[in-house]
């Protein structure tokens, strides 16, 4: 199922996906990778790395005026996903509401050959980036991509040793406070996990796109979970050197343990989000040690707030009203008509369910109740009823001879009662 409707609200591809037919007419390098079916529909084979690369380069050129080169042996980024991350960082640092003349500084941990986050962030918002890279090929391509787009004054690409994240990268930047860091960590811990042998749900369909990338881009010791924990460890030492720390995650199962790690470490500000695009979903986690930052609401909480909820409405038929009135009368209730009797029965049901309730002021022809549920007493009612019936059936029965003796005794009881009645009336005079 396509997830594009859940893209970030400011993502240009949310309501207007790329027009492959138009792009094919304008860019010959892209045209050679498109396919046209019998209905004239233009499509792209996302399992072909050359086709994916052509699409990425074409979109960056068409929509952002960026020219880049990416080797097939390294990770080929998809533009809508990276754009989602950039827009979320905008939300974190309050870019939309801030003075646009203020220079924002960010760090891209492992920028990759494309250097796509710094290129997008600088082109869209004029941000300054420190982009780190451990791989020689990625470093050389990233540096070249920055230079050929004339952005060297805003993007500094630095080669760092293996396993370097933030601490070593900031040694030469000791006086600078950065607004944020971004990271697309290696998702996998080993080759088997990268191929989905021991991590992918067997019921899920295979990936719809090709997985390119060098060893350092897709694999790390302990996978993304341990990689991000190392960033958390660095952040505990750097603290307010960065206003926001953030990482993208490829697996939802990594989110909960990382949030728990931040809780254990006493990090005061934590939030997360979802990146939805095409048939791909990613997650991202962000944390801060600043008290004055505005924390964007997680998507789950935001959906609850935005979701319009209709009031629970029941239409009570006249026949049902009469039945309720009769029952109420038989129980001696004074509420025997109209909304009053319905309210009385609703209150009885709530009492049976152990739901606290009290009436609150409302209109003349209305009854409003404020409910407080101390426990969930209304789910699985049928199951609970069946369980009670089962328990009753399992109550030990008396032996058959005892039951037979009780039945015989019961059959003689009326005569004994009659004799007792005669005795109770005392001696009677005989009538001749």
UniProtKB/TrEMBL annotation:
Its main location: cytoplasm. S-adenosyl-L-methionine binds at residues 82, 110, 133, 184. It holds the Pfam family Methyltransf_10. It is found in: Cytoplasm; Nucleus. Residues 401-432 are annotated as: Disordered. Residues 401-413 have a biased composition (Basic and acidic residues). One of its GO terms (molecular function) is RNA binding. GO terms for biological process: mRNA processing; positive regulation of mRNA catabolic process; regulation of mRNA stability; rRNA base methylation. It is an enzyme of class 2 (transferase). Interacts with MEPCE. Interacts with LARP7. This is RNA N(6)-adenosine-methyltransferase METTL16. It comes from Mustela putorius furo (European domestic ferret).
């Amino acid at each position: 199922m396509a997830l594009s409707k859940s893209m970030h609200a400011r993502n240009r591809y949310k309501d207007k996906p790329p027009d492959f037919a138009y792009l094919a007419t304008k860019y010959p390098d892209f045209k050679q990778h498109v396919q046209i079916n019998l209905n004239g529909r233009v499509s792209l084979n996302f399992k072909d790395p050359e086709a994916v690369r052509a699409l990425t380069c074409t979109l960056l050129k068409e929509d952002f005026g960026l020219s880049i080169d990416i080797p097939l042996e390294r990770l080929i980024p998809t533009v809508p996903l990276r754009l989602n991350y950039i827009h979320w960082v905008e939300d974190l640092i309050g870019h939309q509401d801030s003075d646009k003349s203020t220079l924002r500084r960010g760090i891209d941990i492992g920028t990759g050959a494309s250097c796509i986050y710094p290129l997008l962030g600088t082109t869209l918002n004029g941000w300054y980036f420190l982009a780190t890279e451990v791989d020689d090929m990625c470093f050389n391509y990233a540096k070249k991509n920055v230079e050929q787009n004339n952005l060297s004054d805003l993007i500094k690409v630095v080669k760092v040793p293996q396993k370097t994240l933030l601490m070593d990268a900031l040694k030469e930047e000791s006086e600078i406070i950065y607004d944020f860091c971004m990271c697309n960590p290696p998702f996998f811990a080993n080759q088997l996990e990268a191929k989905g042998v021991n991590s992918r749900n067997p019921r899920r369909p295979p990936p719809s796109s090709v997985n390119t990338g060098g060893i350092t881009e897709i694999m790390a010791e302990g996978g993304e979970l341990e990689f991000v924990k190392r960033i958390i460890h660095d952040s505990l030492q750097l603290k307010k050197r960065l206003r926001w720390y953030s990482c993208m995650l490829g697996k939802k199962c990594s989110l909960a343990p990382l949030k728990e790690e931040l809780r254990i470490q006493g990090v005061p500000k934590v939030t997360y989000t979802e990146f939805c695009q095409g048939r791909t979903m990613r997650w991202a986690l962000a944390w801060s040690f600043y008290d004055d930052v505005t924390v964007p609401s997680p998507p789950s909480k935001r959906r609850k707030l935005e979701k319009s909820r209709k009031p629970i409405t029941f239409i009570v038929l006249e026949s049902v009203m009469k039945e309720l009135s009769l029952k109420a009368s038989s129980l001696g209730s004074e509420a025997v008509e109209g909304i009053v009797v319905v309210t009385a029965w609703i209150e009885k049901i709530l009492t049976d369910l152990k739901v606290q309730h009290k009436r609150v002021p409302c209109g003349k022809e209305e009854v409003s109740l404020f409910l407080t549920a101390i426990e969930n007493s209304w789910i699985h009612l049928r199951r609970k009823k069946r369980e009670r019936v089962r328990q009753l059936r399992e109550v030990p029965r008396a032996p058959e001879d005892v039951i037979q003796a009780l039945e015989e005794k019961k059959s003689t009881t009326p005569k004994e009662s009659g004799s007792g009645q005669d005795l109770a009336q005392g001696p009677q005079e005989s009538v001749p």
